[in-house]
Design goal:
Blueprint (H helix, E strand, L loop, with lengths): L3 E8 L4 E8 L4 E5 L5 H11 L2 E6 L5 H4 L2 H8 L3 E2 L6 H4 L2 H8 L18 E4 L2 E7 L8 E5 L4 E5 L2 E2 L2 E2 L9 H12 L7 E4 L5 E2 H7 L5
């Protein structure tokens, strides 16, 4: 089984976990959620010594997608995801950035929208796409059961869950997404979330106060 490496680069004042994930054998990989601070992301790519095949978005919020247009143009690679229900967020990135006093963000349209049961390749390794609305209408998670690894954006956190008070969010939908899509995964599946430390599905099933 090809081994995947992960480099987490906190970006923007929101300290969002931009991730560079690559195949250790082929030295090909992806950038997930380049929200901003592209200099740090460029440095990470150079340090890893890899080729980036595509950029993936878990959802359309400014801290996850604000740098996607610039990085896509710079690397000349496709932008993939999220679900098309987040188009209104990607269409207003510039306006949202101005409201937060951020610069450099551009509105963007992905080359490919994602939906439930799609697959994406990360360093040639297939990941299933799970549509997990609630934090945003178009949030998606990427799961490889064999690798025991998932990338869940802002849907689920260590000891918490994503906000549901932003435009398009809904608390009941968020909890249903987590319980129907993520908690059925094996206990030993490690997941990377959009902010803060990683965790496992089993740990959150046992101890997350929002899921009891």
């Amino acid at each position: 089984m090809s081994r995947l490496n992960v480099m987490v680069i906190p970006v923007t004042p929101f300290q969002q976990n931009c991730a560079i994930v690559w195949n250790d054998e082929t030295k090909h990989g992806v950038v997930i959620d380049p929200g901003g601070d592209l200099a740090f992301i460029r440095q990470g790519i150079a340090e890893a010594g890899i080729a980036i095949d595509q950029i993936l978005l878990t959802h359309g919020h400014i801290d996850h997608a604000g740098g996607a247009a610039e990085l896509k143009d710079e690397l000349g690679v496709p932008l993939v995801g999220p679900h098309k229900a987040d188009r209104f967020l990607l269409d207003s990135l510039e306006q949202t950035a101005a409201g937060y006093g951020l610069s450099g963000a551009r509105n963007v349209v992905p080359d490919t929208w994602l939906a439930e049961n799609d697959q994406v390749k990360i360093g040639g390794v297939p990941f299933d796409v799970l549509h997990c609305p609630g934090h945003s209408p178009g949030s998606v998670a990427f799961v490889n059961a064999a690798q025991k690894f998932a990338i869940v954006g802002d849907v689920l956190f260590r000891g918490s869950v994503g906000r549901s008070d932003l435009p398009g969010g809904d608390p009941a939908t968020l909890i249903r997404s987590i319980k129907d899509k993520l908690l059925p995964l094996d206990d030993d599946v490690t997941f990377l979330c959009g902010h803060g430390p990683a965790s496992t599905i089993g740990e959150e099933r046992r101890s997350n106060p929002f899921l009891r």
